[in-house]
Amino acid sequence: MSASLPHSLYRSDQVRDGERKIAADLGVEMYNLMELAGCAVFETMKDRWPDAESILVCCGSGNNGGDGYVIARLALEANMSVTLWSAADPSSASGDALKAQQKFVAAGGLIGQGAFPDGDHDLIVDALFGTGLSRDLSGACLLAVNAINAINCPKIAVDLPSGLDADTGHVWGGAVIADCTVSFVGLKQGLFTGKARDYCGDILYDGLGIGEEFAAHIPASSTLLTLTLAKTLEPQRQNSAHKGHAGRVICIGGQKGMGGAIILSGQATLRSGAGLVAVLTDESHIPAVLARQPELMTRWWLEDDGIEALEETLRWADVIAIGPGLGQSEWAKKLFDAAVACGIPMVVDADALNLLAFSPMRRDNWILTPHPGEAANLLSTHVTEIERDRFSAVKELHKRYGGVVVLKGAGTIVYDGSTLQIIDAGNPGMASGGMGDVLTGVIAGCVAQMSSLSESASFGAYLHSYAADIAAQDGERGLIASDLLPLLGNNIKTESR
After folding, report:
1. How confident is the model over 448-453, as a mean pLDDT?
2. Are 143 and 118 in contact (CB under 8 A)?
């Protein structure tokens, strides 16, 4: 995605109502915005696909369809071959959309309807549905979306791909798979998380001349944490710094036979800048920890040692990271209970989240890092419900458990009770074992160095994905969690990677 995208994201109702208000305040006719939107898409078409001569424009009956009629008219005026197909009865158009339709017809355009058009096209413009869609596509509409996807040519979506929910990223039964989406006035938050990332392609933005005024007066519903914003969160060290200034972290996990996860977490905690890091794990894993990373200190605890010995060990730390490979045995439960009881700031992941689901509690000084499956367990629901509306899910997690919640996945969401942030980094190569264990360590290392849990979670999540993007520059296939470790110490660079 373009690094020039605005940071502010909005719900569709904010954009719909806000653009009318701002346009009225500035004395701008709504139809003029439709013309500007069509022009923005047409200019993007010419820039990205300059050799395209034949285009298919698919229109609906609303204002999104009106944008499509403007695009089709501009293409006609540029002597392109234009096929316009309307999914709705053209006579149902009204208002600005009707005006755009009439101008297209006056320019010599023909409106097709009924069966989806056959023929080859160099480019398809998706202007079927706008931000108002709130139910599953069916019948002719679903057939049209499937037909568009079946044609082997580039697709450009007007404002958002048809079939996608602008607020949540949910797919309403099917959606156009676009190569590029041009969004207007205010970026819609649903374009940047979950399944939406499979459908939007490159996201571009055009404020239509009112974007700056809109952003100045309409409060954002969430924030896109881009490279530029992440750079402002990066922890800095004074020249006189020593290891005591960078915090002490204990990483707890790794029941017998599950040592790899907590080793990765410990390494990531070190690599992200923590001053001193200890790994508390099953005694059998100690040789592997020291062989893999001699800078890690080691701790182990046997139930026969008693809780007091464990509490004394935990009091050494400024931060606890718990969960990777922890398991759900009695040993694991006692470690978890002791970590919670000591009151130290925590990063809670993996099996520690599953233990939390069995004994729910709320506290302010922890960061929870569930993937959708763990989130579903914490909320006693199903993964499909989590992914259906990731924004509502992360808010409900915070309501029940407090602290800062990092809902992992494509377009990771960070929520601290007041601010929603979406991580604008990461790639599909991260879908491999151990990535979450590394994230746990990265965030714990950030907590050790930073004063704000919320900023630690946001920066840590960004740094993790940023390192993965660097590691995947030569290819995403076969990317593994340990590939990120040597890159976690890289300073965030705002120039193109």
Report:
1. 96
2. no
Per-domain residue ranges of the chain: 8-220, 231-487
**Alpha-carbon dihedral sign for residues 31, 33, 39, 44:** negative
CATH topology of domain 8-220: Rossmann fold (3.40.50)
The annotation status of 264 as a binding-site residue, yes or no, is no
To the question of whether residue 412 is assigned a binding role by annotation, the answer is yes
Instruction: Give residue 306's pLDDT.
Output: 87
32-71 per-position pLDDT tens digit: 999 999 999 999 999 999 999 999 999 998 999 999 999 9
Cα separations (Å) of 387 from 293, 350, 411? 37, 18, 11
Dihedral of alpha carbons 18, 21, 26, 32, sign: positive
Per-residue pLDDT at 153: 96
CA distance 421 to 290: 37
**Is 411 assigned a ligand-binding role in the annotation?**
yes
The response to whether 409 counts as a known ligand-binding position is yes
Q: How confident is the model at residue 2 (pLDDT cuts 50, 70, 90)?
A: very low
CATH topology of domain 231-487: UDP-N-acetylmuramoyl-L-alanine:D-glutamate ligase (3.40.1190)
Q: Flag whether 63 is marked binding.
A: yes
How far, in Å, CA of 248 to CA of 199, rounded?
43
275 a known binding residue?
Answer: no
The answer to whether 316 and 335 have CB atoms below 8 angstroms apart is no
Residue 62 annotated as binding site: no
Is 170 among the annotated ligand-binding positions?
A: no
